[in-house]
Amino acid sequence: MTNVPSDRNPNDGQPRPSYDRIDVPRSDAEVKDLLQRTIEAANNSVVVTDMRQPDNPIIYVNQGFKALTGYDEDEILGRNCRFLQRHPDGTMDNDQAAVRAIREAVKHGRYARVVLRNYRKSGEMFWNELYLTPIEDDDGAVRYFVGVQNDITERVELNQSLERRVEKRTNALKEQRDELEHAKERAEAANRAKSVFLANMSHEIRTPLTAILGLADVIRAKSTDDTFEEHISRIKAAGSRLMDTLSSLLTLARIEAGSMDMELEPATVVDVALEVTELFRSNAEENDLSLDFHVTPDARDAVAQLDAGALNSALQNLISNAVKFTDSGRVEVRVYTTTYEGTPYVAVDVEDTGVGISEKFKPFLFESFSQESDGLTREFDGSGLGLAITKQLVEAMNGVITVDSIIDVGSTFTIAFPRADEHERPTQEAPGTRPVDDRDARVHLVEDNDNTVFLLQNLLGDQIDLSVSLNAADAVQHAQNEDFDLFLIDINLGAGGSGVEVLHRLREMERHATTPAVAVTAVAMPGDRDKLLKQGFDDYLAKPFEADDLIEMVNRHLEA
Ligand code: FNR
């Protein structure tokens, strides 16, 4: 067998027969006959129209066209192809971009490819992929058009169903996104509503509470004997407890709303820890517990970036819990330094010999309103917010909190903060002083609440020249005509206006352009202090306040 590689057809590996051995049609008649038979037998549908006859009629169709449309030859020949656009209801379905494209192609004697809706004789719709090709005569004028049709219904419907699925999916995703968006908006609105509610509630509770606690002080000061000492103490204790719960709620709401503005600055941990421990000394003694405080030498000056108020609250929660949950034995507070993953920390342990925490409860320990009980009885006082707040506060100061506990043996809570010892030890603030120093001072109080006015008159009335306006208009009028050394201004004057308005009017007056003005308010929401200072107040005193704090503040501004 001869092997001539150049003669091989690369596709089938068989030797290619030489061209002159193929029997090709020799005459035109033979070629025509061959072509006609080929077209006739083709699976595609073929149609030829004559451009020179009126309305471009069909002069030839193959069997493929008949099979595709269901019409017989005598129903087809001599007609324009548009009869395929006739809807079973008798109307013409010719408002299709494809029909307009064919019209243009035919008009200009151009090639075209379109896909359009057509109808078989049976009335069934099909998608027709139509190729139009002009055939020119010897003069270059278009004499015939050849049309080749394919039924692509299956392909189009598959595409359409895919498109519908994609569209459905896209719509579903869009709906989900919209729903999420709405949920977010609703959550934000709810959060704002919560803040407003808390601000209002805070105001509503703090204002009367200020009066209750303050007047208890007044009664104590004016009593000549001890008849009511116990009653007063109880009023003060219950009021303070209510204030604590209120503060805890507000703190938690602030932390959860992400609006807790912590002011982190270098603070000596041992100072805060000692101060808080001492707060609980009498409490521990009443319960026959020993309360010990230890500090290792290297922790004496250990400083961390803290918000002293926040650390104070966190430790108060831990130590008060330790005292509350320990029947006998001791509570020990230890301050020491340690290193974790190469970072030096200053840590505080609060250890007790109390009831301990069950394994079952440990996972929920730091959640809001959690208290270990059967859910019906509450064995111990408290709102169950303390540990949730403590954890949030500690973490907001970049600290960590851990707990180690054995039931009926005791618990140790540890909080630790990265050390920041290169900072200087902070200086101590001067303590408050009892009587007002400047007895001739003229102080003007703007306050609409009778109880608060009565309280301040009792606390300050004997010591300074205190005058009062019950609303904004009254205050402005007084200020226009009189000199004062200090203004104490309530912010929420009810229908009588706003303290901020009063301040702005004061600042417009030459005589009070720089007179110190203190906002005295039960509005104690996140950022309120800063907001009021930004508005131009020189200071801020939250209700309820201790008598000493008020006097200290008054002194500070009268001296300045
Ligand atoms: C067509 N036309 C056509 N129309 C249709 O709906 N289905 C078809 O299969 C075909 N096939 C076809 C083949 C050839 C060769 C030509 C020249 C045309 C189009 C139809 O005849 C007509 O041109 C269009 O309907 C636009 O013109 P009218 O209806 O606005 O005159």
Automatic annotation (TrEMBL):
PROSITE patterns per the UniProt record, alphabetical: HIS_KIN, PAC, PAS, RESPONSE_REGULATORY
Keywords carried by this UniProt record: Coiled coil, Kinase, Phosphoprotein, Transferase
Ranges in a coiled coil: 159-193
GO molecular-function terms, A-Z: phosphorelay sensor kinase activity
Region (Disordered): 1-25, 418-439
Histidine kinase domain mapped to chain residues: 200-421
Enzyme class: transferase
UniProt domain PAC: residue ranges: 110-164
Residues bearing PTM 4-aspartylphosphate: D490
Record-linked CDD domains: HATPase_EvgS-ArcB-TorS-like, HisKA, PAS, REC_hyHK_CKI1_RcsC-like
SUPFAM superfamilies reported in the protein's UniProt record: ATPase domain of HSP90 chaperone/DNA topoisomerase II/histidine kinase, CheY-like, Homodimeric domain of signal transducing histidine kinase, PYP-like sensor domain (PAS domain)
Biased composition (Polar residues): 1-12
Swiss-Prot/TrEMBL catalytic activity: ATP + protein L-histidine = ADP + protein N-phospho-L-histidine
Location of the Response regulatory domain: 442-558
Xref: InterPro entries: CheY-like_superfamily, HATPase_C_sf, HATPase_dom, His_kinase_dom, HisK_dim/P_dom, HisK_dim/P_sf, PAC, PAS
EC number of the protein: 2.7.13.3
The keyword Cell cycle is assigned to this record: no
UniProt KW Coiled coil keyword: yes
Domain PAS as annotated: residue spans: 31-109
A UniProt-annotated Pfam family: Response_reg
NCBIfam families for this protein: sensory_box
Name of this chain's protein: histidine kinase
